[in-house]
């Protein structure tokens, strides 16, 4: 079977024959490679890269959006370290991410596998699963806060087993974050399910048949066939999930506005508040760089782990 | 002149990278439109920011009224988003794309715009506007005036006369204190299906009053103990059920228009803008049909019942420094007009509470159809001292954010009043400045 | 791939052990019931949107929730077309979504091929840079970006939105990962047959990547369709407003027309739901059924 071949070895084969001098070929490959990337890179560079580079400069300045930025050195970063709100937002963001990432991942993958079958009416359920992602966030926030309210449906159900907390979740400083996480998982599952659904199509069906012949259980088939084949998709999903979790904002803002107090105040809201609300764009940029660095570290780790498994 | 941060750094790279056609030469791109020449009879077109043109006629009214007096000057409106106005106008000012004249919605960002050199000194205009425009002082920094207010909302107590009758309670006859207000709310609550009073979730519904009314209260002192009695009282009203609790308002995203308009509450403290809204909603059927009136907002103690103290930020027009010098005279004339009694009378006739106060303006205001005609409403409209919600400083937004956190924490019982205030004080000391 | 031990082939039936179980019909019924309950839970906010769109404005947010509108305001669905430029907004939004989706899929998949299948120095660094920029909150660099766009005259045009969204790192990343999961033997064989890299991209990779492209297209379409902040900053004139900006204009300084906003939201979700319904077969037909046959 073709899948048995060692992938990296194949990729080492250089296109265009191997007799040319190494350097010339390298140059040629670089040129071809860049020719693929360039059309996208032109737009990306102008729209994203230049402003982001400027953001790095801003982080070392004081800037109110008007006039010239005033250079400060590392002051913004030392201020961040001592800033209680920043610490709170960092803690809340990590709390959110630690639950949001694995829960969404498992939910999305399970749902994708379930909806990749040939059940009758599966097309309808696929569409339904995607609905939370396309429903207006305002409506999501309105309905969920009512479901979570003191005498809402969720507390009534919990009351049956004697666990009714007696308070509205989004208006309680300990329950607000769990509520936010639940709604986020509910909303994001459809999005990542779609990516897994696409990823599942790359798993050759012959592999399943072969595994079945070998007497592999459903769990073994998943672990030995599906999961390895999904590795590139999983890499994408985990990186995107991590980034999205670290910069979560709109849903939290509409559900709780960061409250009560600062109990659901997250990093992206800190950045939004410092920049757009308080006109401290330099300081906000410093916060953005912390967020950027955290994401970068996680991404690099995942990238390297991914590469290692590939070999 | 034009300060472009990105001019030096980004644009050079941007131009080199792709779009080489970066044609605009310095300074000329500020206002793309017409007519430079200026004074005298030459036609001049001024651009001005505005929002929600369909439902907010005040901008077009000012433009039209001014044009009627100065036929050679046209004021053209540029529409912005009402909710995200500050973000949009900031981006425009920063990029040099803002109109000649722009609205300062409230005092919150006035200091930022003034400090960022985004306003022209209009002290000469201010001198001619006259005593009646009491809000003018709020737009003064370093002895100079930077914008001219045309609108000055203030906070009233709205009350449902029909529900008062139903509960068998006499209509109020003058200003009352907060303690009397709480008693009244409890009495109403006992006699009605509706709650006695409704307080919206905004921090200003409580903190705005506390700051304006408490003797010696200062937002920048770092001492917020002046908030404590106000919170104690509201928590007690939530406890007794006389007022819908904050958590319910939040989780059910209640709107104040529905609460008062569909008679869910007998009293409500709200800004003067709601007068026109309520009239319109009763007309359209969105609000139920009932008798109502408004009285001065409750007072700290009985020493201010004669001239009740309330709060509210004046809305003003400022001039963008990038304006074509030739249009400056026309722009200043327009500012002089919006602050005047003439403009005030015109605004009053569409149910807006203007910055300029006089008997003539009050009369024009109460000529609006549907307005309650009782003496107390007239007294509330005409007699009050209104202090700013956002005292002018670069730190205002940051402090207000911290106090907003305290507001939600205290009213959801997440912390005690004492701890919530202590925490806010600590945060202001650590995080602001 | 580490699956060689499992791939020794022999003929067999394709029924799973589950399907052979005598309890299978019962499992099926339970499975369907679970799915239907889950679908109902998932659709609840959408149902609330529809219900709210049939109410009077002051009835949208009340305690307790009023699940049956009284009176039913069908007129909202007429009023929104009469009272606003909903038609124009839909046209603009559709134009942006189609153009941006097309460009994003094209340039994204093209760049992704470079990142996935070509080897050259600096490739991985550049790729990580691409991905990392996704992590920077847009609000933080919005103002400098707006200054650049204003400087080159793009602000207040639909082109601003196209430039803003058509070259996102997200599409490059998604497509690169999809190409990574396509077995390299296929392109290798084509290379041996003398096809150059552009040919392999066009003839081999694109057809195999249809589920990936379909999901990228759908997600880009939805994101563009529902984007609020981008259009808010860049599209100012009424004649270039999108649906989301238009609906936000129902909120003025002190009041909001909640019922009409919900009416507009329902109308705005419908096209996406329809597209998803029609397009979904492309997500579930891929390499497994087309590429590796035989």
UniProtKB/TrEMBL annotation, chain A:
SUPFAM superfamilies: MetI-like. The chain crosses the membrane at residues 31-60, 94-115, 127-147, 248-271, 283-305. Residues 1-22 are annotated as: Disordered. It is found in: Cell membrane. Keywords: Cell membrane, Membrane, Transmembrane, Transmembrane helix, Transport. It is a multi-pass membrane protein. Residues 90-302 form the ABC transmembrane type-1 domain. Its main location: membrane. Belongs to the binding-protein-dependent transport system permease family. This is Sugar ABC transporter permease.
UniProtKB/TrEMBL annotation, chain B:
InterPro entries: Bact_solute-bd_prot1 (IPR050490), SBP (IPR006059). Gene3D superfamilies: Periplasmic binding protein-like II. The keyword Plastid does not apply. Residues 1-23 form the signal peptide. Residues 24-36 have a biased composition (Low complexity). Residues 24-45 are annotated as: Disordered. Keywords: Signal. It comes from the Bacteria. It holds the Pfam family SBP_bac_1. PANTHER family: ARABINOSE-BINDING PROTEIN-RELATED, DIACETYLCHITOBIOSE BINDING PROTEIN DASA. This is Extracellular solute-binding protein. It comes from Demequina muriae.
Automatic annotation (TrEMBL), chain C:
It comes from the Bacteria. It holds the Pfam family BPD_transp_1. Gene3D superfamilies: MetI-like (1.10.3720.10). It is a multi-pass membrane protein. This is Carbohydrate ABC transporter permease. InterPro entries: MetI-like (IPR000515), MetI-like_sf (IPR035906). Keywords: Cell membrane, Membrane, Transmembrane, Transmembrane helix, Transport. Residues 90-279 form the ABC transmembrane type-1 domain. The lineage of its organism: Bacteria, Bacillati, Actinomycetota, Actinomycetes, Micrococcales. It is found in: Cell membrane. It comes from Demequina muriae. The chain crosses the membrane at residues 29-51, 94-115, 127-146, 158-179, 200-222, 259-279. Belongs to the binding-protein-dependent transport system permease family. PROSITE patterns: ABC_TM1.
């Amino acid at each position: 079977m073709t899948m048995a071949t060692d992938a990296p070895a194949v990729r080492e084969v250089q296109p265009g024959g191997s007799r040319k001098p190494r350097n010339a070929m390298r140059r040629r490959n670089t040129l071809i490679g860049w020719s693929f990337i360039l059309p996208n890179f032109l737009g990306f560079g102008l729209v994203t890269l230049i402003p982001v580079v400027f953001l790095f400069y801003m982080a070392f300045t004081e800037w109110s959006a008007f006039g010239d930025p005033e250079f400060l050195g590392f002051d913004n970063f030392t201020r961040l370290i001592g800033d209680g709100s920043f610490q709170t937002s960092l803690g809340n963001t990590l709390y959110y991410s630690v639950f949001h990432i694995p829960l969404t991942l498992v939910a999305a993958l399970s749902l994708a596998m379930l909806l990749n079958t040939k059940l009758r009416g599966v097309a309808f359920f696929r569409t339904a699963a995607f609905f939370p992602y396309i429903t207006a966030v305002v409506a999501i926030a309105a309905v969920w806060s009512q479901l979570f309210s003191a005498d809402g449906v969720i507390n009534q159900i919990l009351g049956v087993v004697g666990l009714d907390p007696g308070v509205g979740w989004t208006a309680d400083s300990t329950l607000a974050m769990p509520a936010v996480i639940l709604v986020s998982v509910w909303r994001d599952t459809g999005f990542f399910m779609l990516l897994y659904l696409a990823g599942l199509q790359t798993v050759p069906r012959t592999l399943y048949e072969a595994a079945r012949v070998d007497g592999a259980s459903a769990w073994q088939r998943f672990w030995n066939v599906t999961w390895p084949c999904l590795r590139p998709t999983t890499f994408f999903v985990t990186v995107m999930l991590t980034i999205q979790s670290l910069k979560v904002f709109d849903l939290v803002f509409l559900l709780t506005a960061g409250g009560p107090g600062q109990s659901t105040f997250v990093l992206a809201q800190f950045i939004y508040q410092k920049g757009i609300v308080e006109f401290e764009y330099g300081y906000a940029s410093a916060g953005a760089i912390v967020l950027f660095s955290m994401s970068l570290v996680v991404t690099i780790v995942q990238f390297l782990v991914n590469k290692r498994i590939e070999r | 002149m034009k300060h472009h941060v990105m001019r030096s750094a980004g644009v050079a790279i941007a131009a080199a990278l792709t779009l080489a056609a970066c044609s605009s030469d310095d300074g000329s791109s500020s206002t793309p439109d017409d007519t430079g020449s200026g004074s005298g009879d030459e036609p001049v077109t001024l651009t001005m920011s505005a929002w929600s043109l369909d439902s907010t006629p005040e901008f077009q009214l000012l433009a039209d009224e001014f044009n009627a007096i100065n036929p050679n000057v046209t004021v053209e409106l540029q529409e912005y988003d009402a909710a995200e106005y500050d973000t949009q106008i900031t981006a425009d000012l920063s990029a040099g794309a803002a109109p000649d004249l722009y609205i300062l919605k409230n005092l919150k960002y006035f200091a930022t715009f003034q400090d960022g050199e985004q306003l022209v000194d209009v002290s000469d205009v201010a001198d001619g506007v006259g005593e009646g425009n009491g809000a003018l002082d709020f737009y003064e920094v370093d002895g100079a005036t930077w914008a001219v207010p045309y609108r000055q909302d203030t906070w009233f107590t709205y009350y449902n006369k029909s529900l008062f009758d139903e509960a068998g309670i006499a209509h109020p006859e003058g200003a009352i204190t907060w303690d009397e207000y709480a008693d009244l709310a409890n009495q109403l609550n006992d006699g009605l299906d509706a709650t006695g009073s409704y307080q919206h979730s905004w921090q200003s519904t409580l903190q705005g009053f506390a700051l304006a009314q408490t003797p010696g209260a200062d937002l920048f002192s770092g001492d917020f103990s002046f908030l404590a009695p106000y919170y104690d009282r509201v928590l007690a009203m939530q406890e007794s059920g006389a007022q819908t609790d904050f958590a319910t308002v939040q989780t059910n995203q209640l709107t104040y228009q529905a609460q008062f308009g569909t008679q869910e509450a007998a009293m409500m403290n709200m800004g003067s803008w709601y007068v026109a809204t309520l009239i319109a909603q009763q007309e359209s059927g969105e609000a139920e049909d009932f008798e109502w009136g408004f009285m001065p907002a409750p007072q700290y103690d009985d020493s201010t019942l004669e001239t009740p103290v309330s709060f509210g930020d004046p809305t003003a027009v400022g001039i963008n420094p990038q304006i074509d010098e030739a249009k400056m005279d026309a722009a200043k004339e327009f500012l002089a007009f919006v602050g005047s009694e003439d403009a005030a009378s015109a605004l009053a006739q569409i149910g807006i509470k203007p910055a300029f106060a006089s008997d003539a303006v009050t009369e024009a205001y109460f000529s609006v159809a549907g307005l309650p005609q009782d003496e107390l409403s007239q007294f509330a409209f005409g007699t009050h001292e209104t202090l700013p919600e956002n005292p002018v400083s670069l730190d205002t937004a940051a402090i207000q954010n911290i106090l907003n956190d305290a507001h939600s924490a205290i009213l959801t019982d997440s912390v005690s009043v004492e701890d919530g205030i202590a925490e806010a004080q600590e945060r202001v000391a650590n995080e602001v400045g | 791939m580490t699956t060689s031990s499992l791939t020794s082939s022999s003929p067999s039936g394709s029924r799973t052990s589950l399907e052979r179980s005598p309890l299978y019909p019962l499992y099926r019924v339970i499975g369907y019931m679970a799915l239907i309950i889950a679908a109902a839970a998932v659709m609840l906010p959408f149902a609330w949107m529809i219900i709210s769109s049939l109410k009077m404005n002051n009835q949208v947010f009340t305690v307790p929730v009023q699940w049956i509108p009284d009176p039913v305001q069908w007129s909202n669905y007429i009023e929104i077309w009469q009272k606003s430029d909903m038609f124009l907004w839909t046209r603009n939004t559709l134009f942006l979504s189609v153009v941006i989706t097309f460009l994003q899929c094209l340039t994204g998949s093209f760049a992704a091929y470079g990142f996935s299948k070509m080897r050259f120095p600096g490739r991985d660094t550049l790729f990580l840079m691409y991905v990392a920029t996704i992590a920077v909150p847009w609000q933080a660099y919005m103002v400098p970006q707006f200054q650049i766009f204003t400087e080159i005259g793009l602000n207040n045009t639909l082109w601003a939105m196209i430039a803003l969204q058509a070259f996102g790192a997200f599409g490059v990343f998604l497509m690169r990962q999809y190409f990574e999961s396509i077995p390299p033997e296929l392109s290798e064989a084509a290379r041996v047959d003398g096809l150059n890299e552009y040919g392999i991209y066009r003839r081999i990779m694109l057809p195999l990547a249809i589920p990936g492209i379909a999901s990228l297209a759908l997600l880009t379409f939805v994101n563009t369709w529902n984007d609020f902040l981008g259009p808010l900053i860049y599209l100012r004139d009424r004649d270039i407003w999108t649906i989301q900006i238009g609906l936000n204009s129902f909120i003025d300084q002190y009041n909001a027309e909640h019922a009409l906003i919900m009416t507009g939201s329902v109308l705005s979700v419908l096209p996406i739901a329809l597209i998803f319904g029609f397009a979904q077969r492309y997500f579930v037909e891929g390499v497994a059924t087309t590429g590796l046959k035989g």
